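Milestone M4 deliverable, item 7.
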Amino acid sequence: MLKVRVIPTLLWKDFGLVKGVAFNSWRRVGSVMPAIKVYNARDVDELVLLDITATCQQNEPDHDSVADFADECSVPLTVGGGIASLEQIIALLQAGADKVSLNSSAYREPALVDRAAARFGAQCVVASIDVRRIADGRLECFSHAGSEPTGRDPVAWACELADRGAGEILLTSIDRDGTMRGFDIDLVASVAAAVPVPVIASGGAGTYSHVVEAVVQAGASAVAAASMFHFTEQTPAGAKQALHDAGVAVRRSAPAA
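Output delivered:
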Protein backbone atom coordinates (compact mmCIF):
# COMPACT_ATOMS: atom_id res chain seq x y z
CA MET A 1 0.00 0.00 0.00
CA LEU A 2 1.39 3.40 -0.97
CA LYS A 3 1.89 5.72 1.97
CA VAL A 4 0.39 9.20 1.87
CA ARG A 5 2.95 11.97 1.53
CA VAL A 6 3.13 15.41 3.15
CA ILE A 7 4.87 17.89 0.83
CA PRO A 8 5.73 21.51 1.64
CA THR A 9 5.57 23.81 -1.39
CA LEU A 10 8.22 26.49 -1.86
CA LEU A 11 7.19 29.30 -4.21
CA TRP A 12 10.27 30.98 -5.61
CA LYS A 13 10.15 34.51 -7.02
CA ASP A 14 13.09 36.77 -7.80
CA PHE A 15 15.60 35.09 -5.49
CA GLY A 16 13.28 34.65 -2.53
CA LEU A 17 10.37 32.64 -1.23
CA VAL A 18 6.93 34.22 -1.41
CA LYS A 19 3.35 33.38 -0.51
CA GLY A 20 0.14 35.02 -1.60
CA VAL A 21 -3.59 34.47 -1.74
CA ALA A 22 -5.27 33.14 -4.89
CA PHE A 23 -1.99 33.47 -6.81
CA ASN A 24 -1.84 37.21 -6.01
CA SER A 25 -0.55 39.72 -3.43
CA TRP A 26 2.76 37.94 -3.04
CA ARG A 27 4.76 38.69 0.08
CA ARG A 28 8.29 37.66 0.90
CA VAL A 29 8.51 34.88 3.49
CA GLY A 30 12.21 34.02 3.43
CA SER A 31 14.94 32.48 1.34
CA VAL A 32 15.03 29.14 -0.38
CA MET A 33 18.16 27.59 1.10
CA PRO A 34 17.31 28.11 4.80
CA ALA A 35 13.82 26.76 4.19
CA ILE A 36 15.22 23.61 2.60
CA LYS A 37 17.55 23.10 5.55
CA VAL A 38 14.68 23.50 8.00
CA TYR A 39 12.45 21.05 6.13
CA ASN A 40 15.27 18.52 5.97
CA ALA A 41 14.85 18.17 9.74
CA ARG A 42 11.03 18.26 9.80
CA ASP A 43 9.95 14.80 8.66
CA VAL A 44 8.77 15.83 5.18
CA ASP A 45 8.46 13.28 2.39
CA GLU A 46 9.31 15.57 -0.52
CA LEU A 47 9.66 19.22 -1.44
CA VAL A 48 8.13 21.05 -4.40
CA LEU A 49 10.01 24.15 -5.62
CA LEU A 50 8.13 26.27 -8.16
CA ASP A 51 9.57 29.34 -9.89
CA ILE A 52 6.32 31.30 -10.26
CA THR A 53 7.68 34.02 -12.57
CA ALA A 54 9.83 32.03 -14.99
CA THR A 55 7.12 31.24 -17.54
CA CYS A 56 5.48 34.68 -17.50
CA GLN A 57 8.88 36.37 -17.89
CA GLN A 58 10.02 33.77 -20.44
CA ASN A 59 13.04 32.91 -18.30
CA GLU A 60 14.98 29.68 -18.55
CA PRO A 61 14.98 27.46 -15.45
CA ASP A 62 17.80 28.47 -13.11
CA HIS A 63 19.81 25.25 -13.24
CA ASP A 64 22.70 26.62 -11.16
CA SER A 65 20.45 27.58 -8.26
CA VAL A 66 18.62 24.27 -8.49
CA ALA A 67 21.98 22.47 -8.26
CA ASP A 68 22.80 24.41 -5.09
CA PHE A 69 19.40 23.68 -3.58
CA ALA A 70 19.55 20.00 -4.51
CA ASP A 71 22.94 19.65 -2.82
CA GLU A 72 21.33 20.65 0.47
CA CYS A 73 18.05 18.78 0.04
CA SER A 74 17.86 15.37 1.68
CA VAL A 75 14.40 14.44 0.34
CA PRO A 76 13.10 14.09 -3.23
CA LEU A 77 12.88 17.49 -4.92
CA THR A 78 10.35 18.42 -7.61
CA VAL A 79 11.21 21.54 -9.62
CA GLY A 80 8.87 23.54 -11.85
CA GLY A 81 8.63 26.87 -13.61
CA GLY A 82 9.78 27.90 -17.07
CA ILE A 83 10.29 24.36 -18.36
CA ALA A 84 9.60 24.29 -22.08
CA SER A 85 11.82 21.60 -23.60
CA LEU A 86 13.27 18.15 -23.10
CA GLU A 87 16.74 19.70 -22.94
CA GLN A 88 15.72 21.83 -19.97
CA ILE A 89 14.33 18.78 -18.21
CA ILE A 90 17.62 16.97 -18.78
CA ALA A 91 19.54 19.91 -17.34
CA LEU A 92 17.32 20.08 -14.24
CA LEU A 93 17.61 16.36 -13.57
CA GLN A 94 21.37 16.57 -14.02
CA ALA A 95 21.37 19.50 -11.57
CA GLY A 96 19.82 17.26 -8.93
CA ALA A 97 16.05 17.56 -9.31
CA ASP A 98 14.31 14.22 -8.81
CA LYS A 99 11.15 15.23 -10.69
CA VAL A 100 9.97 18.07 -12.89
CA SER A 101 6.61 19.80 -12.77
CA LEU A 102 5.07 20.72 -16.12
CA ASN A 103 2.21 23.20 -16.32
CA SER A 104 2.03 25.94 -18.97
CA SER A 105 4.24 24.07 -21.42
CA ALA A 106 1.89 21.07 -21.36
CA TYR A 107 -0.97 23.18 -22.73
CA ARG A 108 1.24 24.61 -25.45
CA GLU A 109 2.91 21.32 -26.37
CA PRO A 110 1.18 18.29 -24.80
CA ALA A 111 3.61 15.93 -26.52
CA LEU A 112 6.34 17.22 -24.17
CA VAL A 113 4.70 15.14 -21.45
CA ASP A 114 4.84 12.03 -23.66
CA ARG A 115 8.49 12.60 -24.53
CA ALA A 116 9.54 13.30 -20.96
CA ALA A 117 7.77 10.21 -19.63
CA ALA A 118 9.23 8.03 -22.38
CA ARG A 119 12.75 9.35 -21.78
CA PHE A 120 12.87 9.53 -17.97
CA GLY A 121 9.95 7.45 -16.74
CA ALA A 122 6.55 8.50 -15.47
CA GLN A 123 7.90 8.81 -11.93
CA CYS A 124 9.90 11.87 -13.01
CA VAL A 125 6.96 13.76 -14.54
CA VAL A 126 4.52 15.71 -12.38
CA ALA A 127 1.67 17.35 -14.26
CA SER A 128 0.66 20.55 -12.49
CA ILE A 129 -2.92 21.76 -12.93
CA ASP A 130 -4.08 25.13 -11.57
CA VAL A 131 -7.86 25.47 -11.42
CA ARG A 132 -10.15 28.45 -10.94
CA ARG A 133 -13.95 28.68 -10.73
CA ILE A 134 -15.12 31.08 -13.44
CA ALA A 135 -18.17 33.34 -13.59
CA ASP A 136 -20.65 30.72 -14.74
CA GLY A 137 -19.62 28.36 -11.93
CA ARG A 138 -17.57 25.98 -14.07
CA LEU A 139 -14.07 24.96 -13.13
CA GLU A 140 -11.39 25.84 -15.68
CA CYS A 141 -7.65 25.21 -15.91
CA PHE A 142 -5.39 28.26 -16.01
CA SER A 143 -1.78 28.54 -17.18
CA HIS A 144 1.01 31.10 -16.66
CA ALA A 145 0.77 31.18 -12.86
CA GLY A 146 -3.00 31.33 -12.98
CA SER A 147 -3.19 34.33 -15.30
CA GLU A 148 -4.33 32.77 -18.60
CA PRO A 149 -7.52 30.72 -19.11
CA THR A 150 -7.05 27.60 -21.20
CA GLY A 151 -10.64 26.49 -21.78
CA ARG A 152 -9.71 23.07 -20.39
CA ASP A 153 -11.83 21.11 -17.94
CA PRO A 154 -9.65 19.91 -15.03
CA VAL A 155 -10.93 16.33 -14.99
CA ALA A 156 -10.59 15.85 -18.74
CA TRP A 157 -7.17 17.52 -18.76
CA ALA A 158 -5.92 15.40 -15.86
CA CYS A 159 -7.03 12.26 -17.69
CA GLU A 160 -5.21 13.32 -20.84
CA LEU A 161 -2.02 14.10 -18.95
CA ALA A 162 -2.13 10.74 -17.19
CA ASP A 163 -2.70 9.02 -20.53
CA ARG A 164 0.31 10.84 -21.92
CA GLY A 165 2.52 9.43 -19.16
CA ALA A 166 2.49 11.87 -16.26
CA GLY A 167 3.23 9.93 -13.09
CA GLU A 168 1.20 12.14 -10.78
CA ILE A 169 -1.02 15.22 -10.77
CA LEU A 170 -0.31 18.30 -8.65
CA LEU A 171 -3.81 19.78 -8.41
CA THR A 172 -4.12 23.34 -7.08
CA SER A 173 -7.27 25.32 -6.40
CA ILE A 174 -6.38 28.94 -7.20
CA ASP A 175 -9.45 30.18 -5.31
CA ARG A 176 -8.39 28.36 -2.14
CA ASP A 177 -4.66 29.09 -2.45
CA GLY A 178 -3.30 30.87 0.62
CA THR A 179 -6.69 31.14 2.31
CA MET A 180 -6.16 28.27 4.78
CA ARG A 181 -9.90 27.53 4.48
CA GLY A 182 -9.42 23.95 3.37
CA PHE A 183 -8.91 22.15 0.08
CA ASP A 184 -11.55 22.13 -2.65
CA ILE A 185 -12.68 18.63 -1.71
CA ASP A 186 -15.07 18.24 -4.65
CA LEU A 187 -12.32 19.17 -7.13
CA VAL A 188 -9.80 16.80 -5.58
CA ALA A 189 -12.32 13.97 -5.39
CA SER A 190 -13.42 14.37 -9.00
CA VAL A 191 -9.87 14.24 -10.35
CA ALA A 192 -8.67 11.51 -7.98
CA ALA A 193 -11.58 9.30 -9.02
CA ALA A 194 -10.88 9.83 -12.73
CA VAL A 195 -7.14 9.20 -13.04
CA PRO A 196 -5.05 6.09 -12.36
CA VAL A 197 -2.12 8.06 -10.95
CA PRO A 198 -1.56 9.75 -7.56
CA VAL A 199 -3.14 13.17 -7.02
CA ILE A 200 -1.43 15.75 -4.81
CA ALA A 201 -4.03 18.07 -3.27
CA SER A 202 -2.86 21.70 -3.13
CA GLY A 203 -4.41 25.05 -2.31
CA GLY A 204 -6.15 25.83 0.97
CA ALA A 205 -4.58 23.69 3.71
CA GLY A 206 -4.85 25.44 7.05
CA THR A 207 -5.35 22.74 9.67
CA TYR A 208 -4.52 19.10 10.18
CA SER A 209 -8.19 18.27 9.69
CA HIS A 210 -8.01 19.75 6.19
CA VAL A 211 -5.14 17.40 5.41
CA VAL A 212 -7.10 14.41 6.68
CA GLU A 213 -10.20 15.42 4.68
CA ALA A 214 -8.22 15.64 1.43
CA VAL A 215 -7.02 12.08 1.87
CA VAL A 216 -9.92 10.31 3.59
CA GLN A 217 -12.82 12.08 1.90
CA ALA A 218 -11.36 13.08 -1.47
CA GLY A 219 -8.87 10.30 -2.15
CA ALA A 220 -5.69 12.39 -2.47
CA SER A 221 -2.46 10.40 -2.39
CA ALA A 222 -0.47 13.36 -1.05
CA VAL A 223 -1.07 16.82 0.33
CA ALA A 224 0.94 19.94 -0.47
CA ALA A 225 0.91 23.02 1.74
CA ALA A 226 2.71 26.32 2.08
CA SER A 227 0.86 28.89 4.23
CA MET A 228 -0.02 26.27 6.82
CA PHE A 229 3.66 25.63 7.47
CA HIS A 230 4.88 29.21 6.94
CA PHE A 231 2.35 31.08 9.09
CA THR A 232 1.14 28.70 11.81
CA GLU A 233 2.72 26.47 14.43
CA GLN A 234 1.55 23.38 12.58
CA THR A 235 4.24 21.12 11.17
CA PRO A 236 4.62 18.35 8.61
CA ALA A 237 5.20 15.91 11.46
CA GLY A 238 1.95 17.04 13.06
CA ALA A 239 0.12 16.56 9.77
CA LYS A 240 1.50 13.04 9.54
CA GLN A 241 0.44 12.30 13.10
CA ALA A 242 -3.10 13.46 12.31
CA LEU A 243 -3.18 11.23 9.25
CA HIS A 244 -1.84 8.30 11.25
CA ASP A 245 -4.48 8.87 13.94
CA ALA A 246 -7.14 8.79 11.18
CA GLY A 247 -5.90 5.37 10.06
CA VAL A 248 -3.93 6.59 7.06
CA ALA A 249 -0.57 4.98 6.29
CA VAL A 250 2.27 7.54 6.33
CA ARG A 251 6.04 7.44 6.49
CA ARG A 252 7.24 8.32 9.98
CA SER A 253 10.76 8.90 11.21
CA ALA A 254 12.16 6.41 13.66
CA PRO A 255 12.43 7.81 17.20
CA ALA A 256 15.83 9.07 18.23
CA ALA A 257 17.97 6.55 20.11
